[in-house]
Amino acid sequence: MYAGKKNGLVEWLFVAPALIPFLIFVVWPFVSSLYYSMTRWNGFTSPVFIGFDNFGRLFREASFVAALSNTIVFTLAGLLISNVLSLLLALALNRAGRSKAVLRTVFYLPGVVSFVTMAVVWSSIYHYYGPINEILIRLGLESWTREWLGNFDTVMAALIIIMVWSGVGFGVIVFLAGLGSIPADLYEAADLDGAGAFAKFRYVTFPLLMSSVTIVTFLGLTTSLKIFDLPFLMTNGGPGDASTTLAMLIYKQAFSYSNYGYASAGGIVLFVLVGFISLLQIKATRGREVQL
Amino acid sequence: MRKKLGVVIASMLLLGTAAGCGSNDKAGSGAESSASSASQQASPNASDTGGEQSAPADGADSEAFTITVSSWNLADEPLGIVKAYREAFENVYKQKYLNATIKYNNTPGDKYFDLLKAQLASASAADVIQFQPSHLPMFTTAGFLADLSDLSLVSSLEGAMKTEVTYQDKVYAIPFDISTNGVWYNRKLFEDNGVTPPATWDELLAVADKFKGMGITPFAGGFKDAWVSSMTVKTFTMNDYSSPTFEEEVYNGSKKLNGPEMQATFDKLQLFYDRGYFGPDAMSNGWDLQRKAFEDGKAAMIIHGSYIAGLVNSEMQDKGGMETGFFPLPNDDGAPVLSVGSDTLTGVNAKTPNLQRAKDLVAAMHDAEAQTIRDKDAGVFPALKGIDIEYKELGNHDFQRALAETDSLLGGQYVPASVYDVYGKLFTKIMAGKTFDPAWLDEADQAYAQDKSLLPPPGQ
């Protein structure tokens, strides 16, 4: 019994170097934010406990509802457009032969460009006197010209295009790695069975790519749900609340307005949302993974 | 609360005019000599500052140390004005602290204030910090700012400038500048087309219509930047405050931010949009492109603060410079109201281990000669008495005259930051084609109710 206790102590000592920083830098801030979410606190003076008032206010505020809705649109767009496009590009690149390496680099490049640089370039592209409107005018479509980032109908689409452009390369790389790991003899067997290209994709490629789908979808979902820098730099959430996201709302409430209690409540809601959706997604995709 | 800042401004104007006599338009030697004399009057010689840690007046401190300054406007810029200013006040400081190293923590724009608040809350802020008047009540109640009442510079403060930095009878910051927002115009464009600065709202609309008819955008827009949107709305709001004590009345609950005053402001902004006064690219442009449209003559006017005349003239030097003019945004009866205040306050972090050294650095940063270097080409107007600058730009002369002759108030003193953000946001909705609905202002009223606790009660 004594030896068991001693072993337990030794085990804790081995775990401690990782556990202590984790408790201090991850668990404690999270537990603290749970408490602060139930306070009115400006970050400087003592917090005042107000129960669940902040959460009630969150769901009553039009700006929060707008931010939640925009965040979900970004997430769905990332999930549907980005993933599908990544997969299609990866499939095409997988058959590209010698140009594969070059094209892979080209597709991945936008992902390594800093958001600030990207914001400058895309702001010029979307500017009222930018190339898009210029092309439309030359095509005789002057009535279609507009301020792409300053218009309620187009701002989200304009931002989603940038999000997909910058994120698609990562998906391509992961899918290419997944495609490379599928044994060629499975395709040979499918050929012998008379399977066509679509049948091979449906019954061989896609099931064996599911682990890649899980990774790309999980990372894409968590990134999209927390999206901040793109709308912050491009539109500051405008016009109105048309492109405000949850992360932006939390940032503004905390750092611009000094409503740290309210911002913490927003952070908790975002945490629950990310956690819940991610769990659903992992459950949905993991169950379809095929192990060789 | 409304008051003429005439006493302060008129004295600045008179002293400036006197100092300018005999100097040429290039504002070089005249400004320097006047600055030197001002320096003798108002220069914050380190030995003037109070405090028990003060070094002997007749001996410099040779101890090596590093002192930090955080700001959003002390970084190098293309014109080199800020660099020259930094060198000037560093020289002043090093007369007392021979081996001091001044380290600058510069963060651009809006992000600076967010960062500063986080640094103050986590006790990691710089020794000397720059901020804006809206932050002062919160910083003082939280105990972040050292009391600067014993600085000799305080005697150079009076009127609204002193009110702005005083909290519960103690002075917690030194204002660097006095500023207001209004309408700057392209002087040549106005003169070439026989247009005179409008005095009433109807005259303003007529001027705008005239330029629009000529294919020139009446007002340059740059509302991609949130601060430009909020600042533009704030410029309009002052004329629609129903009384000089409007903000106190809102604080006391007798007036509302979704009432007729703010509705009138947004109706005017809606009118500007409907008539296309801000041009088709107003939401695509940030502050840089807004300024460029004005400099290139594509827009006749621009609504901004005191910095415009010096800035555009300097930026247009290779094309022979640019003369501007200034007038307050007119209201219906030709008696506009300006929101006057300081854009930059300098304070000392209460937790600094270098309290006296930090106070002395604040004093050096407001040295008359150094400040003149910073101000004369950048169109910054010193808030301290005794710093006399002969500005070469005609627009700056207009600006000084407008400050002296126009009713003014300390706008925004009792309005939380979130409300101005809401105003800016609502304005961008108008600019994006939505028609203003008075119910939109409920959001501003709600933000006010939520964040009222962040404001100091009127009178403190």
UniProtKB/TrEMBL annotation, chain A:
Superkingdom of the organism of origin: Bacteria
InterPro entries, sorted: ABC_transporter_permease, MetI-like, MetI-like_sf
Chain ranges passing through the membrane: 12-31, 72-93, 105-129, 155-182, 203-225, 260-282
GO biological process, one term: transmembrane transport
Record domain ABC transmembrane type-1: where: 68-281
Family classification: Belongs to the binding-protein-dependent transport system permease family.
Name of this protein: Sugar ABC transporter permease
Lineage: Bacteria, Bacillati, Bacillota, Bacilli, Bacillales
